[in-house]
Amino acid sequence: MEARLDNKRISFARIPSTIQVPDLLDIQIESFEEFLQSKVPPSKRENKGLQAVFLANFPILDNKEFYRLDFIEYYIEKPRYSIVECEERGLTYSAPLKAKLRLSTKDQETQEFVNSVEQEVYLGNLPFMTNKGTFVINGAERVVVTQLHRSPGVAFSQTVHPNGTPIYSARIIPFRGSWVEFATDINNILYVYIDRRKKFPAT
After folding, report:
1. H-helix or E-strand spanning residue 183
2. Tell me: the pLDDT tens digits for 159-181?
3. Which tens digit of pLDDT belongs to each residue from 93-107?
4. Which of 32, 39, 59, 90 gets the most CB atoms within 10 Å of its CB?
């Protein structure tokens, strides 16, 4: 009779893991929560994220500086529809964003702003992140895609048309607002582009 081989099976599943796998979704979720600060009381919010956006744009004055609009605080309410309802109806999973603003008028004698009126203003719906770190846009689940932000300044470039004519362009990128670009064509005519859409002749 042939000797029967004793085949031993080695199970690596019993070996304990030496490194605990972190929750990779926490990076997205915590970053979004840090941007909104929805769980932080309005009086204790730090100057970052959405709070920094409001503080950077307020107060707003009219041309004659007779009226002033001040920002007090903002609120983020609960989403109206659930994630499942948004996917079934083709909606965007979002939450209403409201802000409390104060409108003041200037006293012509004292040159101080008085007669203040405070009111809660609805600003729109803000896309809300799910517990999986994704967004539901028009019923479709999407993930966050990073975007390259160009530094403010002036950039010059030169290209060559297929007929050999050099084409020059200069792009003005502001810190905030519309992009302005000057460019020539094959007939050496200078044009101005605003936000890469509107085109005006400059010569």
Report:
1. strand 180-184
2. 888 888 888 899 988 887 888 89
3. 999 999 999 998 887
4. 32
Going 64 to 119 to 125 to 132, the CA torsion angle's sign is positive
Same-domain status, 93 and 116: yes
Report the C-alpha gap between 94 and 125 in whole angstroms. Answer: 6
159 lies in the same domain as 86: no
Q: Looking at 93, 111, 142, which one is the last position of a domain?
A: 142
DSSP 44: G
Domain region containing 177: 153-201
Asked if residue 148 is part of any domain, the answer here is no
Mean pLDDT of 27-48: 90
The pair of structure tokens assigned to 109 is 């004698």
**Reported pTM:** 0.60
3-state secondary structure 71-132: EEEEEECCCCCCHHHHHHHCCCCEEEEEEEEEEEEECCCCCCEEEEEEEEEEEEEEECCCCC
What the block records as the tokens of 39 is 């769980």
DSSP helix/strand/coil, 166: strand
169: closest CA among 185, 186, 151, 156? 156
What are 146's two structure tokens?
A: 């990073």
Band (15; pLDDT cuts 50, 70, 90): low
CB 30 within 8 A of CB 24: no
